């Protein structure tokens, strides 16, 4: 492999009003200096596009600061070291890092973490089933919503990268019943087939509250929210006494320019002793070792399946993000940058 | 004291549409039989009127079932045994029970709990500072919202029976700053004076979000919600990363006939990792002994003050409830039935 000295990068140049458009981004080419002391150069193989990035395109106070205008966007990526001035990182090592949205990344070695290469597991899995995506599902379900065996669990956006993991982890952890919602009949079939959900519904086929009530005649104990909006309201209507909801995101509202509407049934939260708890995975990283060990076992035993939707080329990263926002992906949405040598 | 054999009782005869009106209730007189085996007769001294009772007047599924139409309403009360057929309850004992909204109560002894008479503490305190009211404040703040020393705490409806306890317990438990809201300048003065809040504001004087931001320039860590509506939205806007809200009630919306509006800033819950948790005191009764011991110590040391607003006579119970709904009370709202003999 030649050592590339040019990096093609995607920068945010305008804050999207509603749905992101091409004009909100630009592609630029950066000439890289030789790696300095303590630095490495990495050729990215895959970059991750995730729903939370939409929030970072806005200029609002948040746990995670907004993307800066005119700077290259960041995000999860996995690649291979092509040049290194430090002993801990060797040429050929596979590393994960946050310098996504570029084909070649260069920086201080501390920004990169070496991951093992496991036979039969693609390196892209480090962004999904072995990465932040599945960790999000794991901690949201078990730490935030405190699922216990026997719970009935409802997951929205269940065919997505996080949702499909939530459903499978819930089953493996002893949920009595796992219910999912998704935006097409094909995804619904995937949920009850490949992903092993007990039942699922297409939220575009009727009111969410009615469909959820039919799917959960005895109510739900845990809700994992990827969607917000009417899904959250339906869950609040359906949660049993003492029920818990982990709020992971609200993709239904990310691109809305209207003032969002809050759930109109907040009174249920008092009367039924419900808990709604938001989270971002970054504050639960201490659970990574336990998660990684358990997930590796499930993968080795064939008890967890995962899907990827792959778009080719850094020049299509913005398209990939738009497809993700429209729900065109099944499982983890990735941009493939370089093919493994 | 003569042994009364007639009981005057308040019954719900129609479900209120919006604000309760006199026609939703009737006063009736019941002739009591002699207490049967295992029964006692109690002359009530005080009955409690509480905001949660408004919810029970509606016919909606809830943790606590609705009041039945045509039956006598129930609720906290304290009285004195005037006749007993059981050894455990003696004539003259002070008892607390749930057979409120009547001047004389009769029933199985198991429904009545004897409370000690403490010099300097009125029997009415068993409904307030030593009863469910202050237990609500205690468990909501410490168990539900998990307040820890150093937290900045915001309480709405802070001059009410629960709110005034929340503020004082927060201070005694080491809150860095205690902020309250109330509906009049006189109540605001009471908060920062008698009740020891660090700062307070009149929610009728301007937008809650603006006033709360001014009162809490470094944000809040805990919110105790007695009000709902724009107070809850303001708290969600102001809670710091990892902040917790205990949802105790939403008096602002109890009498509304419009569809309630939910908080429009639910996205903050995800981004800042906030927790909203509803509760009713009935599911936290296991904390009563710890609460009672701690509160008795605070009272004996003069570290907690409490107020009562007392309306005289069972025939004015509905008026008392209406006054409570309009915020005319300071501290615990009570209906005095019989004067201690």
UniProtKB/TrEMBL annotation, chains A, B:
Pfam families: ADH_N_2, ADH_zinc_N. CDD domains: PGDH. It comes from the Bacteria. Residues 23-335 form the Enoyl reductase (ER) domain. GO terms for molecular function: oxidoreductase activity, acting on the CH-CH group of donors, NAD or NADP as acceptor. Keywords: Oxidoreductase. This is NADP-dependent oxidoreductase. It comes from Pengzhenrongella frigida. The lineage of its organism: Bacteria, Bacillati, Actinomycetota, Actinomycetes, Micrococcales.
